[in-house]
Amino acid sequence: MHNPNGKKFRPNREADEDNNLLEGRNAVTELLRSGQDCDKVFVAQGARMGDIIALAKSRGVPVVECDRRKLDGMSTTGNHQGVIAQAAAHAYASLDDLFQNAADKGEAPMFVICDGIADPHNLGAIIRSAETAGAHGVIIPKRRAAGLTAVAARASAGALAYMPVHKTVNLAGLIDELKERGVWVFGAEADGTVGLYEADFAGPTAIVIGSEGEGISRLVRQKCDFIVSIPMRGKVNSLNASNAAAVLLFEAVRRRTYGK
């Protein structure tokens, strides 16, 4: 492939896989002006993008300054003009939408909170587990975490079409709001103070799954009502984030269906 200037380039495979990238000043500006969900804007270091950066920040969209070579690797057109935006592959829901989803089913709310899940494959797998377990919504932070990219959508194996996902600027503040609305918040950690089979998931519940490397962040952990540990019987003492989410979700399903 060639760009308009006649120079050869090889599109990054990851960029090909994540096909919701918009390139160039006009395309990114119009995306931000349209009000469509946008996960992130990448800007080349030293590029004069003050207007785009200001517009992105006014929309609450994270801006990442990076080496131009990174943009070259992401680009599928070879003509990114120093800016690439990552648009959401699926619209985000409001927090009220998540509660309404539970109310429409006549069930106590059950949500999954993803605290810093950076891998879109893991996020998609968590959404898939949440949907199959009958959860009413997934909550993700706006910064330092994967969004609803095309990769996450594919990893969800179709579950994203049925599972509302809410994106928040302030995860700790959102947990406070959940608690004000009667939801009990359970964080999943290896050093939990409550065992998985003793945790009471029968009422309105939010399960917090931490990042792949660092687990639940300090402030979010402090906001949790309970820290729940999954019993480990083997030599390895940890689970992938999406696997941990599935274990907790289906224990909640068992508890809600059969009681203790």
From the 3D coordinates, which CATH architecture of the largest domain would you assign? 3-Layer(aba) Sandwich
Shape: elongated
How confident is the prediction overall: mean pLDDT? 87
Task: Tell me what portion of residues adopts beta-strand conformation.
Answer: 15-25%
- What summary fits the major beta sheet? 7 strands, parallel
CATH superfamily of the largest domain: SPOUT methyltransferase, trefoil knot domain
Let me know the number of strands: 11
Assign the CATH topology of the largest domain: Alpha/beta knot
Instruction: Tell me the radius of gyration.
Output: 20 Å
User: What's the helical proportion of residues?
Assistant: 25-40%
Question: Could you say which structural class the secondary elements and strand pairing correspond to?
Answer: alpha/beta
Tally of domains: 2
Biggest β-sheet: strands ordered side by side in the sheet: 7-6-5-10-8-11-9
| Spans of at least 5 consecutive residues with low confidence | 1-18
Order of helices and strands: HEHEHEHEHEHEHEHEEEHEH
By CATH reckoning, the class of the largest domain would read Alpha Beta
Q: First CA to last CA: what distance?
A: 61 Å
Figure out the total of helices: 10
Protein name: RNA methyltransferase, TrmH family, group 3
Pfam families: SpoU_methylase, SpoU_sub_bind
Keywords: Methyltransferase, Transferase
GO molecular function, one term: RNA binding
